[in-house]
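Why do we care about 3D structure at all? Because function follows from shape, and shape follows, mostly, from sequence. That is the central idea of this module. The next example makes it concrete: a single protein chain, its amino acid sequence, and then its structure expressed as tokens.
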Amino acid sequence: MKSINIGLLGCGTVGTGVAKLLMGNKALLSARVGAELNLKWAADVDTEAERKITFAEGVFTTNARQVIDDPQVDIIVEMIGGQGIAMQLIQQAIENGKHVVTANKALLASRGNELFTAAARQGVDLAFEAAVGGCMPIIKTMRESLAGNHIQAMTGILNGTCNYILSRITDAGISFEAALAEAQQEGYAEADPTLDVEGFDAAHKTAILGALAYGMEINLNDVYIEGISSVTPLDIEFAGQFGYRIKLLAISKMTNGMVESRVHPTMIPRDNLLSNVNGTLNAITITGDAVGEIMLYGHGAGMMPTASAVISDIVDIARNLLCTAPRRVPPLAYQRNSIRKIPVLPMEELISNYYFRFSALDQPGVLSKISGILGEYNISIHYVHQKGRKTNGAVPVVMITHRVKEADVKQALAEIQNLKVVSKEPVLIRIEDAHME
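And the structure:
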């Protein structure tokens, strides 16, 4: 049986999981591929970590360059992460004619265009199923299963840390800070959680999915990003009263030749399937002109779920090698000469429904002053709620709007914030509800 040699760079959590599957499921993989997937090298600078895995003699090394320069290695698996040494090693592996598998969404979102160009020039595959959604097969679905569809929209929960925090605030009524501390204690959040809770991780994935969906260049800079650190139990409570739950959503839509690309806390109806995706789970709905709406759901992170996605890429490339058909499937779903720049809708031009919460002094005429300013900017109110506990002389005034333009909303809220009867900066949360006008 033919042997396909694999060089693993990085034996952290996911890298160790990849090694475990390659070694522990070796017979299964051989039966499915028709070749032996041989872990020839596993490289990591940390020689002291407890990995609960025993490599064959001569497999483990601290020299990543030795791995990518080995002429017998067919596939390089990059599990280092970050945008420094990982970029250098992937570039060199491609130049050496190696096929590459990576889960590095931050690198692909920021420098993917040049890496995919280099891979095309060298005629090698660059695969990245694990970069988005963990074990959910979203990349394969976009590239292959939905190849006959014009993708119209994608809406997803793509960060398990944020989903866990919002689920805990919703279920237990605790603060963001308390929920974050729980997530860190459980190992769901990093010591520095900024990349997750401020929406950057989900934005990386949104940029990659947009390229796959619409045949556009990866465009991270135009993804609107807003995190969950300002979401309060009070707003989650009001959302529940109106029949909504708050989720950090990654939203991408093709609208009149422009792409919406945004990540932010969003109110969605309780009967929306995404509203019932809780804890660290991820999910995404995709709307295509032929299939309508489909949904993928699963673990978006973790050693073995993510390693499973990495193995699926290794298997795909191995099968290509056996058939001498590298790059059989375009990595970004479109042939390179069809990938183009597509304008991204400026956030100011977004048309949506909105939730507002004002901390207003308990005085006559307050509501009319706020409503008057909203009216000046053609913001039509669908629902008003004015009651609740008084805090420092102020009570919450909550409004839900009909569909209006973001630019008008921002200007109106800036004026309202300057009113003497408003004690705090207004809260804005966008609403995705197909049943509202």
